[in-house]
Amino acid sequence: MSAARRCSPPRALAVGLFVWRLKNTGIRQVPCQFVQLCHVANDRLITFQYFNFLKRMYVTQCNKDLSQRAKPKSDSVASPFHELQQLDQEKKVIHKIRPISPVHQPLSEASISSELREMKSAAQTEGSVAAVRAEAKGDRQWKEMKLRLDDLPGILARLSKIKLTALVVSTASAGFAMAPVPFDLTCFLLASLGTGLASCAANSINQFFEVPFDSNMNRTKNRPLVRGQISPLLAVCFAASCGVPGIALLTLGVNPLTGALGAFNIFLYTCCYTPMKRMSIANTWVGAVVGAIPPVMGWTAATGSLDAGALLLGGILYSWQFPHFNALSWGLREDYSRGGYCMMSVTHPGLCRRVALRHCLALIGLSTVAPVLNITTWTFPIISLPINLYISYLAFRFYRDADRSSSRKLFFCSLWHLPMLLLVMFTCKKSFLEKEDKGDLLGESHGRVMEIRLP
Predict the structure, then answer these.
(1) I need a surface site. Which of 20, 168, 238, 251 has the fewest CB within 10 A?
(2) Helix (H) or strand (E) holding 446
(3) What is the DSSP secondary-structure string of 283-333?
(4) 229-288: per-residue pLDDT in tens?
(5) pLDDT tens digits, one per residue of 78-106
């Protein structure tokens, strides 16, 4: 308190001196001496409150011209009431409707007919829209599927996987044609028909077992049993009506060995391969055995025996299936994962690519073995070398890149590689007469050697 009292007299003295100086000098000399008066005794500055107080005194007392004045409004600004009037006028102009005098003209028959047509077309469009809405609403609801006889052949064709069945029959026919015996048309037709029926039965049973898993895959969700287009009982009856006559036809019409191979293939596909698809990646090797049996069946149907030529044809089909299926499954990994299938492309992607490359190289070796076993001439491995090298190159690209593009190229190449290879093999086949002449020559030479050795 004592320090504040000691500081107050100098401040009061400074304020008094500043006011007296303003009265005597006026506005012209104030700016020059304003800074000097701010310094007071003992070199102390005036506080901010005193500065504001002096500023107000300067504005109000010393110069009357600097007092605050009301700024006049410009004439261009219109009053709010005038603006409201203008808006009302605009609204009135907008909503103003000019009166139209009614003109009564007689309607012609053409205009009446056109109006009736327009009304009918409008009614038809409204009816079609309502029907479409009703159909869309019905599609979202559960309803009973009605089977029509016109749709039954297509449904059964999809149930039996008609494209896969055609491939099986074609490989069996290739095995029959490669056999070193005279061609028998009746036996060929019976063997082809029995093999096709057995394949239809196996594929139908496979779809019957995999309904809950196929519904989770985009690739198989439109199958007949998944969509309810056919009942499970009808599917089983169709499989039985194909399997029993097919095996009976192969056993009685061809030979028991071919019938046994057909029955074994149905069992292997339905009872081994189908459940193994959800348990182990070994299902791929089992499925390759299933695909390798049809050409063996064709060979045995023609010869009645299981020779080295039948095993060679089965080996070619066995090796071809790995690049074909592994490339296909590579693009369907998400589908197989949703379906719960244990595939190499899902669980062992590196092994999937390596196996495809190995078996493409194995096709080159198997093609070289064919003339050694006296099945084809030596021109077959030479002519088949380019296509085998090409599919091996694509398999190497698939092994190196491991993408969808390389797998798709390998898959499409496998589709034309197999028929091309079998066609070249059939072209380079040794004829039956050459083998018979060669066998006769070997028999005669063997008899001469025995005669020479006898005393």
Answers:
(1) 20
(2) helix 432-453
(3) HHHHHHHHHHHHHHHHHHHHHSS--HHHHHHHHHHHHHHHHHHHHHHHTTH
(4) 889 999 999 999 999 999 999 999 999 999 999 999 999 999 999 999 989 999 999 999
(5) 454 455 455 455 545 444 455 554 444 44
